[in-house]
Amino acid sequence: MIARDVQPRVQVGTAEADRLISELAKSRKVMDREISVIQLNAGSDGTGDKAQLDKLTELKTKIAAGEKFDELARVYSEDKSAASGGNLGWFSSGELNPQLEEALDKLEPGQVSEPIRTPLGWYLVKLENVRSTKAVETGPQTQLELYLLATKAGEDSKQVEESLNKQVAALRKGFEVKAYFEKGEFKEAFPASQALGWVVQNDLDPELAKALEDVEPGRWSDVVTVNGNMARIYVADSRQAMPAQLNAYRERVMNNIFGNRVELEARRFMQNLRQRAFLDVRL
């Protein structure tokens, strides 16, 4: 009945997920957290909640007394992660249920939460580790297709610069540059060269980014020194594209929003169903 009557009414849009991702990125300094869990499944009507709450409270007491979280997870957890001691790996903000996110915000690495009720059941969560990462961008990014012509600076930097300029003068057109790199003709004179492919502009080395500030597609940059190499960079093309990791991140966030809304609507549905029910007693 829930699948037939409730789930079709719940809709979650990508714009809503993107807003949540942006808000989470602004409100949290820590973006990634490694967690382990002990999960006990709850009945769809909540009848098993007290027994499971009592069990997790008992396990929490055992952990406080010195028993190991991973050993208890292997024995008691009903999550598929039980085999690995409950370890779920790393998650970014917004990927977990809001109840878990709220509990984790209060924990330091090594600490274990109080029992938590979520749409998927009851949890004890251990915060294993934290790390800071860049926020996931929700808008288009500028990407550049780049070719790096480079060699070691050496003692005679003027001669190296002249060699770079001479080779660049022979590679005026885009098809000439691509053919030159595809054939590997740079290997002898410019061994540090490489086709960089599509690169997000904001991820470039600061020195490269500065050298490419005013370089339009189809042009070479001026000579720049990067990591001990003298180089010139060819900008073959530019484009606006969505971040590669956004789709996977967005899907997980949308699934969590959807699951929580279905849980809320299911409770309302069951409550209304009970109110409409009647008992016919015949003797």
List the helices and strands and how they pair.
Blueprint: H1 2-6, H2 14-27, E1 32-40, H3 49-64, H4 69-76, E2 87-92, H5 98-104, E3 116-118, E4 121-131, E5 141-152, H6 157-169, H7 174-182, E6 194-200, H8 206-211, E7 219-220, E8 224-226, E9 229-241, H9 246-276
Antiparallel strand pairs: 1-2, 1-4, 3-4, 5-6, 5-9, 7-9, 8-9
Helix pairs in contact: 2-9
The mean pLDDT is 83
What's the gyration radius in Å?
28 Å
Q: What is the CATH class of the largest domain?
A: Alpha Beta
Strand content: 15-25%
Describe this structure in words.
This protein is an alpha+beta fold. The protein folds into 2 domains: 2-135 and 245-276, Chitinase A, domain 3 (Roll), CATH 3.10.50; 141-241, Chitinase A, domain 3 (Roll). It contains 9 helices and 9 strands. Strand 8 (224-226) and strand 9 form a beta hairpin. The longest helix is centred in the last third of the chain and has 31 residues, at 246-276. The two termini are 32 Å apart.
In short:
The chain has 283 residues and is of the alpha+beta class.
Question: Which characteristics define this entry?
Answer:
283 residues, five-stranded antiparallel beta sheet, four-stranded antiparallel beta sheet, 9 strands, Chitinase A, domain 3, 9 helices, alpha+beta, elongated, 39% helix
